């Protein structure tokens, strides 16, 4: 069945079939392309020769290869009872991040016969833990000396040495004592003998052998000469 509508007064036929297509289909391009200008390449690269966090300058340090040692006296020396003992000790390295520096020993100890006799710590007045001299007293005899350096809680020992302390005046190396004075008895006896001879041997208390004096020999010789002269005259 076909329905025919009457024409309007304006003469327009207005079909109203709804064939028109809507233009609002969203074909418009979004100009916001999200092209963020930041490239993400941040400029926070640390400068050369410094740490990336604090800017601290980096330094190097190499531990000393020298041992702890007793410089004087030398091993086997003969020393007086009061003696100076010189000790040297090496430094070590400590680092804070990449910054390293030398560190002297915390303390230095001198031992005599395995017992600590003298010590000092870094910072004490008159103490140099890298090169320290101690003055100590030793008793007569043979003693063993060694040293210990404390490197932040780690002990380093030196080689030990032996020294000898002379005991008393009898063990000195000077000239020997003079001999005792000669006895006076021999001089007295010879004097007594001479006195007896000069008295013609009349002494009664001397048991010593009397020797003829030169005057007795001379008298005997003269007597012999006189006897010879008399015999010649007679002949």
Question: What does this 3D model show about the protein?
Answer:
With 235 residues, the protein is of the alpha+beta class. 15% of the residues lie in helices and 27% in strands. It is built from 2 helices and 11 strands. The protein has helices at residues 185-198, 214-234, and strands at 69-72, 78-79, 82-88, 92-96, 99-103, 107-112, 115-121, 131-137, 141-151, 154-157, 161-165. The strands form 3 sheets. Strands 2, 6, 7, 9, 10 and 11 form a 6-stranded mixed beta sheet that branches. A 3-stranded antiparallel beta sheet has the order 1-3-8, with no helix packed on it. A two-stranded antiparallel sheet has the order 4-5. The longest helix is centred in the C-terminal third of the chain and has 21 residues, at 214-234.
Topology:
Elements: E1 69-72, E2 78-79, E3 82-88, E4 92-96, E5 99-103, E6 107-112, E7 115-121, E8 131-137, E9 141-151, E10 154-157, E11 161-165, H1 185-198, H2 214-234
Parallel strand pairs: 2-11
Antiparallel strand pairs: 1-3, 3-8, 4-5, 6-7, 6-9, 9-10, 9-11
Task: Please summarize what this structure is.
The protein has two helices and eleven strands. The chain is an alpha+beta fold and 235 residues long.
């Amino acid at each position: 069945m076909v329905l025919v509508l009457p024409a309007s007064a304006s003469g327009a036929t207005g079909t109203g079939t709804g064939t028109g297509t809507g233009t609002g289909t969203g074909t418009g391009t979004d100009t916001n392309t999200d092209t963020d200008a930041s490239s993400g390449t941040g400029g926070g690269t640390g400068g050369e020769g410094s740490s990336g966090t604090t800017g601290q300058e980096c330094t190097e340090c190499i531990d000393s290869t020298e041992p702890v040692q007793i410089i004087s006296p030398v091993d086997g020396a003969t020393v007086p009872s009061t003696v100076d003992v010189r000790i040297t000790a090496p430094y070590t390295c400590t680092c804070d991040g990449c910054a390293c520096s030398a560190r002297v020993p915390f303390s230095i100890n001198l031992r005599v016969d395995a017992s600590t006799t003298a010590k000092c710590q870094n910072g004490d007045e008159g103490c140099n833990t890298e090169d320290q001299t101690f003055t100590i007293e030793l008793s007569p005899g043979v003693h063993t000396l060694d040293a210990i350096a404390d490197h932040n809680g780690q002990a380093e020992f030196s080689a030990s040495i032996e020294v000898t302390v002379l005991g008393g005046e009898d063990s000195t190396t000077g000239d020997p004592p003079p001999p005792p004075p000669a006895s006076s008895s021999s001089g007295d006896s010879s004097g007594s003998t001479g006195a007896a001879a000069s008295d013609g041997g009349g002494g009664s208390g001397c048991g010593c052998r009397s020797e003829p004096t030169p005057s007795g020999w001379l008298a005997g010789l003269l007597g012999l000469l006189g006897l010879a002269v008399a015999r010649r005259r007679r002949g």
